[in-house]
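Hi everyone, sorry if this is the wrong subforum. Our group has a chain we'd like a structural model of before ordering constructs, and none of us has done structure prediction before. Sequence below.
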Amino acid sequence: MQEKSTDPGAWHLGRPPERADVVVVGGGIAGTSAAYHLASAGVEVVLMERGSIGGGATAAAVGVLSPPVRQPFHETVHFRGRDMAIELWQIAARSIHGLAQFLSERGKAEEAELDLSGGYVLAEPHTTHQMRLAYEALFRNGLPVSWISAAEVRSLFGGRGFTGGYRIEGGGSLNPAAATTILAQAAESEGACVVENVDVIGTDLTPDAIICRADGVSTKCAAVVYATHIDSGRFSDFVREEIVPIRAQGLSSEPVPRVFHGSFSTHWKLNAWRQTSAGRILMSGWRHDAWDRAYGQRRPALDERLQGDLHHWFEASFPTTAPLRVKDRWSGVFGWTADFLPMVGAIPGSPREFIITGFSGGGVPFAFECGRSIAQSVLRGTPTDGCGMFSPARFQRT
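Answer:
Right subforum, don't worry. Here is the predicted structure as tokens:
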């Protein structure tokens, strides 16, 4: 799993106060982003995390920091229209730029392993046609991508069995657990109260407040933000019905010679990987032949067969890294929505309750801007530019 910052912050000894303006439940990259933006706006914020900051789904993420590639871009254009497809890309790009600027201004870019040397999406024989269509749609619409040939993949990365791919200018990677810790520290410096090892077990809505009940302590607030990934369904039947859990596998290697800079994925992010500054390979995936063992699985669990598939696939695809000595293996669960877009905004029928979840495995590039959008929605009742498309109300049944 991802390694966190060596500075644990002062919140370990904290305890939730009895009152706050807003309670944020969940200390992953989305929750800490929301807490930071709220605190920066002068809101009295309490962030409660039942485990450790940057743990959970965030710790299981590889750290791909590139605009969305979950759905092929040409399909997004087909189903949503050109303008919305471009706007979706721009939201992710704005989020990446904002997070990079945030880290750089605080002198934390190196600590977060920020690497914006490009995001690479590689094509395999069975995905070549779809990849070409996606690339051509991106290029045709003026987005910053360039095609790389099979020979270039081999020359640049030692890749075998790839038919080409494309590079996303401005994409890259980071250590999401470390970035989350930095966000939590920044939120605290802006006045937020950050508390670990406190499990919010329920919320009660009264006419004038929301009561967040956690481990024998109750905090009264005006609004609550649920940033607990698939567990947000504990607090809302609406969310539980709309989020499908998908279980993925991850592994990290012993250091190998540096080959990869930026982020890498195959089509649909069936595999995603990056190389740390120390030379370790971090990768995750579920592969196209493992749906029966991944779909609908709510709890992390190691899948030995899939772990082996991922390991052998990587060695075969990049033989210069073989033998790839595995240091650690893990499993993580992410929430998938029907349209691949996150749910960010007020819960329908409950305007004081907000959610930021359902990133379909692509939360890292969206989290910073979505946290800003939640903060603006709490304060002004409106999301940031373009983020209205993430409103949970789009799933409301008439």
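For your construct planning: The chain has two domains: 11-60+177-242+340-395, 68-174+252-286+305-323. Residues 204 and 211 are 5 Å apart (CA to CA).
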